[in-house]
């Protein structure tokens, strides 16, 4: 199953921050998990654990401990840990990870109008496969602008605390949302056919 299919099945991505949330993931609806914790020693078993649950797993490179920011680390992650993909805010890591054959989600922070233009420029440079926009509550025009040149899956992440926040982000144009804590993972949302 690929990323687009996973978010089509259930547009809520489980952003897992700790062991307790990892345990809650097993009996939850999300098809996709963003691992926001772990280190070089624990990530191989955590990735295997998520895979045994039948879910896709994406490592947040900026939050994983024990790795450098170079190609050797990306090769190791791809070959030895084997996630479905990675997430990062760092354009050079996104670009290098793509060149190493990983599916890459570039995380962008959008606090103002100028950062939308910067984000578009970064996405053009990195050639990311998908983008995560933070905070998740942004106007619809932001999603439209980010998709203007290239049709990318866009994940809304951050500051989504209630079901209404999730629904609003999806209505504004997000393809999916990433939320932590588990309270919103099993939302019953109308899926697109």
UniProtKB/TrEMBL annotation:
> Per its record, what are the GO molecular function terms?
RNA binding
Q: Which UniProt keywords apply?
A: Glycerol metabolism, RNA-binding, Transcription, Transcription regulation
Q: Report whether Transmembrane shows up as a keyword of the record.
A: no
- Any Gene Ontology biological process: glycerol metabolic process
Q: Where are the transmembrane segments?
A: none
Q: Supply the Pfam families for this chain.
A: G3P_antiterm
Function statement: Regulates expression of the glpD operon. In the presence of glycerol 3-phosphate (G3P) causes antitermination of transcription of glpD at the inverted repeat of the leader region to enhance its transcription. Binds and stabilizes glpD leader mRNA.
In Swiss-Prot or TrEMBL terms, this protein is called: Glycerol uptake operon antiterminator regulatory protein
């Amino acid at each position: 199953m690929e990323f687009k299919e996973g978010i089509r099945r259930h547009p809520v991505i489980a952003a897992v921050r700790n062991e307790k949330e990892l345990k809650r993931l097993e009996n939850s609806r999300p098809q996709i998990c963003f691992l926001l914790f772990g280190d070089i020693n624990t990530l191989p078993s955590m990735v295997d654990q998520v895979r045994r649950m039948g879910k896709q797993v994406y490592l947040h490179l900026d939050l994983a401990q024990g790795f450098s920011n170079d190609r050797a680390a990306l090769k190791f992650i791809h070959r030895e840990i084997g996630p479905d993909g990675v997430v990062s805010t760092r354009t050079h890591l996104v670009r290098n990870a793509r060149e190493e054959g990983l599916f890459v989600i570039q995380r962008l922070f959008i606090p103002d109008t100028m950062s939308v233009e910067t984000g578009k420029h970064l996405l053009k440079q990195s050639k990311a496969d998908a983008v995560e926009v933070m905070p998740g509550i942004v106007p619809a025009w932001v999603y439209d602008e980010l998709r203007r040149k290239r049709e990318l899956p866009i994940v809304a992440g951050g500051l989504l605390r209630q079901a209404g926040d999730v629904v609003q982000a999806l209505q504004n144009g997000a393809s999916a949302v990433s939320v932590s804590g588990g309270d919103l993972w099993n939302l019953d949302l109308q899926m697109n056919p």
